[in-house]
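Dear colleague,

Thank you for sharing your sequence with our group. We've completed the structure prediction you requested, and as agreed, I am returning the results in plain text so they can be pasted directly into your records. Please verify that the sequence below matches your submission; if there's any discrepancy, let me know and we will rerun it promptly.
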Amino acid sequence: MVHAKIAPSLLSSDFARLADECERMLSLGADYLHMDVMDGHFVPNLTLGAPIIECLRPHTKGFLDCHLMVSHPEQWVDDFARAGTDLFCFHIEATTDASALIDRVHALNMKCGIAIKPKTPVASVISLAHKLDQVLVMTVEPGFGGQSFMPECMDKVRELRAQFPDLDIEVDGGLAPENIEVAAQAGANVIVAGSSIFKASSPRDVISLFRKTVNNAQPTA
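Please find the predicted structure tokens below.
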């Protein structure tokens, strides 16, 4: 049985105070620190890369969940491993040999995840899921924060959960108190949220609500 892991998206943080923001999120109950890596090519936005992860690593013991929205993710594996990444998540749409890339990520002592866009069939990752530590189902089009949650993506989560009861299934995009129940009931257990946590009057309460909702949705023995 899986359990809730709450991953605030640092894309919504104050980048001028990134290390402090990471520690603040951990103190409020976060399990992961979700780092959105965008190259301006795979997605039409440019954010952070391995040098920032490397600078951040000495200042936090938090689990760095790095979501690479980049073309040719193979070329960045070594850099992110050296930087201190805990989980390297790449897009299935951005590589031609996902299985080999998973093996390479694991060989460098990082956990590995695969992300799929809203229009990408879940069948694209089913044959690889047994090798993965996490599958990320995007619930918005990747590239920008603040978009609206796409509930139709929950069918993919349900299919993954039915086949892989012990897999960490992450959802990212528009997650908020008003739709966390939908994601939890579908089977998602790793919850990425940016605006709904960072802009909340009480981020701690939002993190707590997400955790309680996900854990309550888990099947009982």
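Summary note from our side: DSSP finds nine helices and eight strands in the chain.

Kind regards,
the structure core
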